Structures are given as C-alpha cells and as structure tokens.
Amino acid sequence: MSIQEEVQKRKTFAIISHPDAGKTTMTEKLLLYGNLIRSAGTVKGKKSGKFATSDWMEIEKQRGISVTSSVMNFEYEGFHINILDTPGHEDFSEDTYRTLTAVDSVVMIIDSTKGIEAQTIKLFKVCRMRGIPIFTFMNKLDREGKEPLALLEELEEVLEIDTYPMNWPAGMGKGFLGIFDRENEQFVQHHPGAEESYIPYKELENHPELTENGTYQDAVNELELVEEAGNTYSEEAILNGELTPVFFGSALSPFGVQTFFDSFIRLAPSPTPRKSTKGAVKPEEEDFSGFIFKIQANMNPAHRDRIAFLRVCSGKFTRGMSVALARTGKELKLAQSQQMVASSRETIEEAYAGDIIGIYDPNAYQIGDTLLTGKEKYEFDELPQFPPEIFKKVMAKNALKSKQFRKGIEQLVQEGAIQLFRDKLTDSFILGAVGELQYQVFTYRMENEYNAEVIMEPIGERIPRWLNPEQADASLFDSGNLLVRDRHDQPLVLFRNEFALNWFKDKNPDIELIDLFETNNYQ
Ligand code: G4P
C-alpha cells in the first residue's frame, strides 16, 4: 500500500467530555466494534479502582486514575482508528490540551441530562479555536434530560459553534422511542433491553403503532422546525470546525452508537497537512516527520525511563530508523518504539502519518520537538502555551538542596509538566498549572526523582494577562496583582480576580492585556 493510501485509512481523534458524561462507556463500545476487547466491562472505570489504560506512576495507583493520556488503535471497516484518551476535569492538566494538537478531530460527549458543564467549556473552546472538527454525541437519551432543542441552543451559545443534528430523538427516558436518522432516512427504533431496529422512512406508514404515538408526532413537528429553521448541512463547515454534527443516543444501551460511528468515520478527516517553518507539510510526503506533544517520565519506575509521544506527520516510521532532531541537528536512532494499547505496551515496527507512537527518550527531547528524515530541515509550528489558572509560590524545603531543586524545576518545566514564572521584583519562583493534579505530580516527582522536597504557598486562582513588554511598567501594578515574567521572559500580570482586572482596564485603557485564550495563539 502506498503512503497516500495508508494516510487515507487513518482517523486520529480524541474523545473529550466532562467526567461521568460517558467517555469510558463510549470508548468501550468503539473498542468492541474494533474487536479490541471482547466484552463490555474490560475498560475499567475509575470507581472499580483500576483505570483503563495505565498504572505507570505510583501516583496513578494511589489515586486510581489515569494521569497520562493513552492511545488506543484498531482496524474498523478498512480504516485504521487511533483514539487518544484525555483525562477528565479533576485530572486535567496541560497534557489534556496538548493532546488536542495531535489529533485531526474530536468527539465531544455531552450528558443530555446536564448539558454543557462549566469545567469543560475551556477544553471545548480550545478545539473550537483551533478549528478542529468537533463531532457531538448527546448521551444518556435513555434518561429524562433536557429538551433536544434547548441542548442545541446551549451548544451554539456557549461554544459559538453552529450545530447540525444528524438525527432527531423521539422522546427520552422511559418514553424514548428512537431517533430519526436524517442521513440514512430511516427511523432507528429503540427497544429497551434489546437491539435497535431500523425502519426506512418510506415504510413508516406501515407502523401506525409508532406513528400514532403523541411523542412521535411531537418529534416530527420538531424535526420539521429544525429542517426549516436550522443550519444547512455543510461538510466543508464541519471540516473547518465551524459546524458540529450532533448525534443523539445512549452509549450504555447502546443506542445510536453504531450509526454515529459509521457517520463519524465517513466524515472525520484523515490526517491533514501541518504547518511548519517550510510551509505546510503534507502527510503523504516520502520523508518521515513528526513532533513530540507529550513526555512522560518514569512510566516504569524500575527503569526510570522517559517516553516521548510522537505524532507522525508525514511519511513512514520504521523501527530503528535514524532521524534528525531539528532543534539541535543531532541524529538519533529510534530503536525502541512502542504503541500504547490499553495496559500493555507493544513494540511497533512501522507507523504512518496520523499515528501516535511512544519512543524512548534518552533525555534528548522537549515538548514540541520536530523529528525528521530527509535533506530538508524545518520545524513544526510551536505548540501553543496554555494559560494556567492555579498559581503557587514554590521554595526548596531544605536550602542545602537548592541545586537539586533548580535542576528538578528546570527539567520538569522543560518537559512541560508545569509552567514557571519569576516574580519581577523578588525573582521568586511561581508555578502555574491548569489543574491541581499537576501540582501533585510535580511535588511527587521533585521528591522522588530529584530528591528535593518543596514547600508550596498557594496564591490562588489568578487571571493571567500577558503584556506588551514596552508597557510592563511595575509602578502600574500593586502588590496584589503580581507582575511576573514567563520562561520566555515575556511579562504578564496575575490579576487577583475579575474585579481587579476590570478595575485595571478602566484605569489604564491604553495598556494592552493579552488573553491567551483569545489570541490566535491556538491556530
Ligand atoms: P466518563 O468516562 O465520562 O467519566 O463516564 P463513564 O463512561 O464512566 O459513565 C459514567 C456513568 O454514566 C456510568 O455509571 C455509566 O454507566 C453511565 N452511563 C454512560 N452512558 C450512559 C447512557 O447512555 N445512559 C445511562 N443511563 N447511563 C450512562 P455509574 O453508575 O457512575 O458507573 P458504573 O458503575 O455503571 O460503571
């Protein structure tokens, strides 16, 4: 098979959701379709104490969670599917955001009884801003939930994205009859406890027991409304991430999952070109290229190894190949390469653009590094920096260990485990993270890997705003709103709260305040 054919076969996506919306249940169903697992219940939920993917780090074992995102892959209907797992809110970290740089689309699962939940809005927004195609699955239709029209409206308002319902539900909860599958022009009938059945639109007249039901008729009226007043279907808008196709169903039953997945596979993009310093890099180019979006240290405590997760962007990877690390020009041999499948690591011999592989890291890589073969030298666009929300001052517990302390911080920051800021006045160390878990991992690793115990002093949730360096005048900021610099020496202010931010804006209308979430940093 040619590289181009291999690339066309690939669908690489992440499933994102608020905890308990049904991500694990959905993943499990997809793995069943892919024959990767044989029975439901193999992918363990958090509550059973074991997690689906890994217990690499002690901290994972202690908390029974998956700190690391893992990758699952399987063949389905002639396609090669790569699913990247992303941790939920409590376990949220920058890794979760970065995972989104390595996928070509996302499946967003929403609990239809709850709608869009606050904590996940940012994650969804990052997808939206990056222009990643988003496919929405409104889950738990077997329970009484919000009205479908209200759910669509919420989605459009909160995420500023157009919606197109691919199917339309008739009823919900106990009165759930099934869905109108608009694409295949059929009614998918729900039979509690049994498999779904399909009635083509043309044959519906032969089913008065269904069509005379009031719930069914209400749904027909709603569907008419959606057809008249709703958005127009556009595959182009889907691929640009401007329109999300919405599927209603139940991952648990399962109901509507197969039709969802079939449509998803058809519509989701195969790997697309990636931006670099030489311009767009096409996935079917002969020369291999890829970038590192995540580094995980100490997956195996016995070996103290580090694994770098690489997204292949062009060409073909073969085990043992030599590549150049674009940042340093150094040649490296990719001898140990692994694929993360559920709890095991399998050696992988070859991979193509779109695939994600784990490679052994001899302490050479940084997040965002480009690996290449071929004569042309270039680097992929830098990974975006995500604005942290929780900040803490950090000091070495034992002043005599300041050397270990600095080394640990330097390495963990370089690895992307946490962000470091320095106070403009005192030069003290301030850490920033998007999730509390990052601090737990940081503390644990400082102690265990660098023998440097730390003391942390919370300075609370802050609102970071980057400044134009010429306007970073310390006299403008009182001590409550910290003026700091990031590791690229760019100045920013950590505002105490929304009130302080607005007050400052009113007083200093000429000072430009940059919100990383609003800039095109994500593009
Ligand atoms: P998560 O990975 O997004 O955190 O969610 P997960 O799949 O673990 O699902 C959370 C809970 O919601 C689970 O129930 C699961 O069975 C349930 N669930 C998932 N999909 C559906 C659905 O379509 N309908 C209904 N009614 N429930 C659904 P649990 O009781 O919290 O855990 P468990 O003991 O069943 O594993």
From TrEMBL:
Keyword Transport among record annotations: no
GO BP terms: regulation of translational termination
Short name of one Pfam family: EF-G_D2
Keyword vocabulary terms for this entry: Cytoplasm, GTP-binding, Nucleotide-binding, Protein biosynthesis
Residue ranges constituting the Tr-type G domain according to the UniProt record: 8-272
Binding site for GTP: 17-24, 85-89, 139-142
Family recorded in the similarity comment: Belongs to the TRAFAC class translation factor GTPase superfamily. Classic translation factor GTPase family. PrfC subfamily.
PANTHER family assigned: PEPTIDE CHAIN RELEASE FACTOR RF3
Protein name stated in the entry: Peptide chain release factor 3
Organism: Oceanobacillus oncorhynchi
Gene name linked to the record: prfC
